């Protein structure tokens, strides 16, 4: 298959360009995946330079080689579901030259595009991507980004034999705050909670605003008691917060649903669905409380 050749330096030699894969399908559209000079393994394995967690991608799916003075080459590493360039399946084990702009499909669902970008082009794309995944009011990531990242966190935790905790926090009576003090007060409450979560969580925790007045936090925890204590600290931290606006001062509370998937299983879908169920129960239980799934966990 004759695909041309892409090089790290452009034809003029005056503006150095760097190689990237940009996600189109099977992930968050627009996300840039930087490639290093030399060989880049692509697959589900954590050891891959480019990790794609989609289930139809093999653990060691493909090898993408990028060099300063040689054509870029893509090799399918005997994957189960194949590697496709512009719709054509690559022969297994045979390096094939890759042209800039080529669309590459790994397995059946993950579609990327091979790009060569200057620093300015990269920054523009990253700015657009960042705006697409952030809630404008709280500046926290949205649900789509959270789901992508929590899958990666779960994979790392599973390898380290650690559990995954997901807490969903819902601001109690936010609609009453809006009705009594105005929509600006409700917005101030959302922004305040976002700031609290940023300052009151660990640097490797994941935080997102996933719905109107619901926030998600994902953290590593070795066992259920530690996870429950962590969720309770989040609730207590919020309950001590006084919101001040031009028109009013008021205290807020949150209802918290906690899902925990233990070491060895570390299933993010189970943890999230459990957290959703527990959040509903926390609201029924009177709000301003933590409801969580007990150990042992069944049906993971």
UniProtKB/TrEMBL annotation:
For this protein, what is the EC number?
A: 2.7.7.65
User: Which Gene Ontology BP terms does the record give?
Assistant: cell adhesion involved in single-species biofilm formation; negative regulation of bacterial-type flagellum-dependent cell motility
Boundaries of each FHA domain copy?
40-90
- Broadest EC class? transferase
Annotated InterPro entries: Diguanylate_Cyclase, FHA_dom, GGDEF_dom, Nucleotide_cyclase, Rev_trsase/Diguanyl_cyclase, SMAD_FHA_dom_sf
GO MF, one example: diguanylate cyclase activity
Q: Where is the GGDEF domain?
A: 162-295
Per the record, what is one GO cellular component?
Answer: plasma membrane
Gene3D superfamilies, A to Z: 2.60.200.20, 3.30.70.270
What name does UniProt use for this protein? Answer: diguanylate cyclase
Please spell out the taxonomic lineage of the organism that makes this protein: Bacteria, Pseudomonadati, Planctomycetota, Planctomycetia, Isosphaerales
